[in-house]
Automatic annotation (TrEMBL), chain A:
It is found in: Cell inner membrane. The keyword Cell membrane applies. Pfam families: DctQ. The keyword Membrane applies. This is TRAP-type C4-dicarboxylate transport system, small permease component. Its main location: membrane. InterPro entries: DctQ, TRAP_DctQ. Coiled coil: none annotated. It is a multi-pass membrane protein. GO terms for cellular component: plasma membrane. One of its GO terms (biological process) is C4-dicarboxylate transport. Belongs to the TRAP transporter small permease family. Residues 21-146 form the Tripartite ATP-independent periplasmic transporters DctQ component domain. It comes from Desulforhopalus singaporensis.
Automatic annotation (TrEMBL), chain B:
It holds the Pfam family DctM. Residues 11-420 form the TRAP C4-dicarboxylate transport system permease DctM subunit domain. Keywords: Cell inner membrane, Cell membrane, Membrane, Transmembrane, Transmembrane helix. Coiled coil: none annotated. This is TRAP transporter, DctM subunit. GO terms for molecular function: transmembrane transporter activity. It is a multi-pass membrane protein.
């Protein structure tokens, strides 16, 4: 999995750099600007954005602004907050995935084409649904994992209470 | 319930989700979900709108600058540049912070967006500053805040939009934000020098001018291939050879052989990691941006900004009071929509009022410019600050306090100076006959 | 309770189209006795015209007055063939009531679940430069001038076949690109568009009639078909008044915009009808066949053949 993301993301971002570089060379040095390059680059760009975000979900490195963190000290409370956050994330992500599915079907039906090269835009548009589906999946995995941790935590605490009681 | 109340509730949801540490895209998504369930918004066609926003080439310079920044820092190019700079500023307390602010201002100068400064300089400067004893949170906050200068030092996309929607000269608008931009740059440098006195910084021993010169010469040959990089970027853009987006790509293509062959910092593995990490940072910020844009699109469709303005106009006709209210209004609108949307909606809406109280369209360009730029670092919609956190690998709790200090002493005073001291924004345009 | 229709357009507030649409909204409300209301969204604040057209066909936005977008059907490109119409009289014959081009566009829209209500003629296009033009009347002279072209095949071919170097630059970078000299000028719009977005960098304007810019007042078809007969008639009548008014003002509006450019410091480059005819002839031979290929040769030919001279 790590290898897949490493290579695919490298290829995508390098394509953008190579494409723009090629444009400068062609226009400034050879004076033959390349038509339609911009619309080709839309495809790797969209996939870069969504696969990049999927990878952030996979690595659990999506940007977070956890303000509550400043006020909470106990590990258990932190874990509860985390499970709540994960749950909210999964709900919203699921909702978005539903709408991106709606968009996926729409794009498939309308089958738009890019303005000069007539490449079907569906191949970029479908990144929305596939990206969100994967993001939701990873969010769900972390939710389950953290619920597991929380249950474990409760068990240990109960166990400790029992021990103290005895 | 009226639409303003519903919008406020959705903002409340956004803040709650944010506080609980829900990933940012889903925070905006949650507010959007609420607006669509109770606020009359619809997701029908909104995804297609979002797609067209993401496919807009105006965003393309962000991944490229992030990648260029990562390659520079992995390859050893950044390192040799920083060693060279360190010869001159290394012994001054706070010197590196000043370098950070100025680099962001310069990178910002060439691009039209607020994100490029963080993207290009964050991967280099944040670790370097931390290595010299600055707290990571502070370094991130400083770089992110300085990065907004990209919107104030010309060219800038927001001023192009403002000129278009208000039928004002775009060149005059560019020049209008220059004064406030330079003032903020100066304020950040000073504030940094003051704050840096508290930090346990690692400083070089004092040197004579002769020693400095000698060391400078020594480092120059080593830094020369690296120094060509900024020359390519700045020269390429100001020489009319390429656009900022293309310049970022050229920097990437130049950095790869230089990193592999001259500085040897780049290995295949380091390169792959740099690319993957750049892509991941870009992906997470872009998905956040797109969800927040969809949310602001729903606000636009439901006429929330207009409703706000109508509510506020009835209050007073006093010029000073009105200007203060308008600054707050712009700040508030900056919380629910991004900079471009804010300009497109609020510019034409407020301009007649500005004319009535004797504020020229050019000065108002600066007022809007400074306010919307500041919106990029003030939560909940603080895309540039969040992006800085991602690039600088810093936590919100560590970043927010220094960020607030910088906003408080850097932006807020300039926001009010821009409103009440016309020459700050009108001086540069007047030099060019506007 | 009356529904308030959302109407999008692509220009800022207080421009000609904005004022005309506001008039339309007022009139519509008045004619329908308050049963039809419309709210105007200027400056593409609901999205660019391509996405707005999609959103109208979905019913998420109700109306717009804007160019026809060819993403969902490339045959829409035919509306903007370069050097297809010569002057205002001919434009009205072909896009006015019962005009052949109007009918074509209406049919294409209908396939997208969109009803064409009115045609809004905008201008005949030209070229804006920030350096001195080089033999602007001779399409065969290589000019060594880089022109920013919009991402549309017709304009790219047009630039290349009139001796310019067509250069694709994103619109967001275009102003700065002209200012720094990455490109020397812009093609694809007219005096009105250049005044709005490029006036600071337009030193010369060549009114070479590159194409006939026309926008369309459109509404979601399902919504329109669902209206009662009375409302439908009020709707259509208001739309035709809106259109009639524009046909009487469009030519003057174009002249006014050229004058605004000139007053702002641009030199209007004189170009004769003969020179335009030479360019036209070349474009018909070089550009048309290529674009006809894309829209479907037979279909395209039949429509070009039906154009009223
Ligand atoms: Na800038
Ligand atoms: Na903000």
């Amino acid at each position: 999995m790590e290898r897949f993301f490493k290579y695919s993301l490298t290829i995508l971002i390098s394509m953008l750099a190579a494409g723009e570089f090629f444009q400068v060379i062609m226009r400034y040095i050879l004076e033959i600007p390349v038509m339609g390059l911009e619309e080709i680059l839309v495809y790797p760009t969209l996939w870069l954005y969504f696969l990049g975000s999927v990878n952030a979900s996979r690595e659990d490195t999506q940007i977070k602004a956890n303000v509550l963190d400043v006020f909470i000290n106990s590990d258990r409370a932190k874990l509860i907050v985390r499970v709540f956050a994960d749950l909210m994330g999964v709900i919203v992500s699921f909702w978005f995935t539903y709408w991106s599915w709606d968009y996926f079907r729409y794009a498939l039906k309308v089958w738009k084409e890019s303005p000069t090269l007539y490449i079907p835009t569906f191949y970029a548009e479908c990144s929305f649904f596939i990206g969100l589906l994967l993001m939701t999946t990873f969010a769900l995995i972390y939710l389950i994992r953290n619920i597991g941790k929380l249950l474990e935590f409760e068990k240990i605490e109960k166990f400790e209470q029992v021990e103290q009681g005895a | 319930m009226d639409i303003v109340t519903i919008s406020l509730i959705s903002l409340g949801i956004l803040v709650v989700l944010l506080s609980f540490g829900v990933p940012l895209p889903y925070c905006f998504g949650g507010a959007l979900m609420f607006m669509c369930s109770f606020g009359g918004g619809t997701m029908k066609g909104t995804m297609a709108w979002g797609f067209s926003q993401l496919a807009n080439p105006v965003l393309l310079c962000i991944p490229l600058f992030v990648f260029a920044g990562a390659i520079m820092s992995e390859s050893g190019i950044a390192n040799s540049l920083l060693r060279f700079v360190n010869v001159f500023v290394g012994r001054f307390r706070g010197g590196l912070g000043v370098v950070a602010t100025l680099s962001c201002a310069i990178i910002g100068a060439i691009s039209g967006s607020g994100l490029t400064g963080v993207a290009a300089t964050g991967p280099l400067l944040i670790p370097e500053m931390e290595g010299k004893g600055y707290p990571r949170g502070y370094a991130t906050a400083l770089v992110a805040n300085s990065s907004i200068l990209g919107l104030l030092i010309p060219p800038s996309v927001t001023m192009i939009l403002y000129g278009w929607v208000t039928d004002t000269s775009i060149l005059a608008c560019f020049l209008a934000t220059l004064g406030p931009g330079l003032l903020i740059t100066a304020l950040f440098c000073i504030v940094n020098l003051v704050i840096a006195r508290k930090f346990p910084l690692i400083l070089d021993p004092p040197k004579t001018v002769k020693e400095t010169a000698k060391e400078g010469v020594k480092h120059t040959s080593r830094a020369l291939p690296a120094m060509i990089m900024p020359v390519i970027i700045l020269g390429g853009i100001y020489g009319g050879i390429m656009t900022p987006t293309e310049a970022a790509a050229v920097a990437v293509v130049y950095g790869i052989p230089v990193g592999f062959l001259i500085y040897k910092g780049l290995t295949m593995d380091a390169f792959l990691n740099a690319a993957k990490n750049s892509a991941t940072a870009v992906g997470s910020i872009m998905v956040m941006i797109i969800f927040s844009l969809m949310l602001s699109q729903i606000f636009v469709m439901e006429d929330v900004p207009q409703a706000l303005v109508e509510g506020i106009f009835a209050i007073t006709t006093n010029k000073v009071l009105l200007l203060i209210i308008i600054n707050f209004l712009l700040f508030f609108v900056g919380m629910i929509v991004n900079d471009s949307t804010s300009i497109i909606l609020m510019g034409p809406l407020l301009l007649p009022l500005m004319n009535a109280i004797g504020i020229s369209p050019v000065q108002f360009a600066a007022i809007m410019g400074v306010n919307t730029a500041m919106g990029g670092v003030t939560p909940p919609y603080a895309s540039i600050l969040y992006f800085g956190m991602r690039i600088g690998n810093a936590e919100f709790r560590d970043v927010i306090k220094p960020a607030m200090i910088l906003i408080g002493v850097g932006y807020i005073p300039v926001v009010f100076l821009t409103s009440f001291w016309p020459n700050l924004s009108l001086y540069f345009p007047s030099l060019f006959g506007y | 309770q009356a529904k308030t229709l959302k109407v999008s357009h692509v220009r800022p507030q207080d421009t000609a189209i904005d004022k005309d649409l506001r008039w339309f909204a007022e009139k519509l409300e008045e004619m329908s006795g308050g049963n039809l209301k419309a709210k105007i969204y200027p400056s593409s604040s609901l999205g660019d015209f391509t996405v707005v057209q999609e959103r109208i066909s979905l019913g998420a936005i109700d109306m717009a007055c804007q160019p026809a977008a060819s993403a969902a059907d490339k045959r829409f490109q035919l509306a903007y063939f370069p050097y297809m119409l010569k002057n205002w009289v001919q434009a009205k014959k072909n896009y006015g009531v019962d005009g052949p081009l109007r009918k074509v566009v209406a049919d294409l829209y209908a396939e997208q679940n969109i009803q064409l209500l009115a045609v809004y003629p905008v201008y005949f296009g030209g070229i804006a430069l920030n350096r001195e033009p080089a033999s602007p009347g001779d399409p065969n002279a290589a000019k060594g001038i880089k022109l920013r072209v919009p991402p549309l095949k017709t304009f790219q071919l047009l630039a290349d076949n009139t001796g310019y170097l067509g250069t694709p630059i994103p619109f967001s970078d275009a102003f700065t690109a002209v200012q720094t000299g990455v490109v020397d000028g812009v093609i694809g719009s007219g005096a009105e568009g250049y005044y709005a977005s490029f006036k600071d960098v337009t030193k010369y304007y060549i009114p070479s009639n590159t194409h006939f810019e026309v926008w369309f007042l459109i509404v979601n078809k399902e919504y329109f078909d669902g209206l009662g007969d009375d409302l439908k008639k009020q709707f259509s009548d208001t739309a035709s008044q809106f259109e009639d008014h524009r046909w009487t003002t469009a030519e003057k509006d174009q002249a006014a915009n050229e004058k605004r450019l000139a007053d702002y410091g641009a030199k209007i480059v004189p170009i004769t009808d003969e020179q335009i005819a030479t360019i036209e002839e070349k474009i018909h031979k070089t550009v048309w066949p290529a674009v006809l290929e894309d829209v479907g040769k037979e279909w395209g030919q039949s429509i070009l053949g039906s154009i009223v001279k």
